[in-house]
Amino acid sequence: MTGADGSPPPSAKEWRLNLYLSERDPATKARIVLDTGDHVLESCAEAHRNPDDTAVPGIGDELAAGRALISLGRQLLRAAAGDLSTAGVPEDTPPAPLWAPRE
């Protein structure tokens, strides 16, 4: 089936992402499970509060979840790079790192 201009009809996909947070002071753990329908990816990360700092649970949640999302994003980019390589697409310049390595 094609559109009036001969283009394929738009498609829609739904990916399910579940984010689980657990806290055992001073640590917060985040676990993310992404189900694309074809594959399942999982990522975990932690945040640790300095015992001298005031306990603000929301900050630990944000840090742990943000770190797990970054890790999941990297997994997705690696998967796409592998798929491109398998398809024979020439290698492109890799994206710039999110932060500079420690010296």
TrEMBL record:
InterPro entries: Rv2632c-like, Rv2632c-like_sf
Domain of life: Bacteria
Pfam families reported for this sequence: Rv2632c-like
Stored Gene3D superfamilies: Rv1738
Biased composition (Pro residues): 92-103
Span list, region Disordered: 82-103
Protein name, as recorded: DUF1876 domain-containing protein
Organism field: Streptomyces nodosus
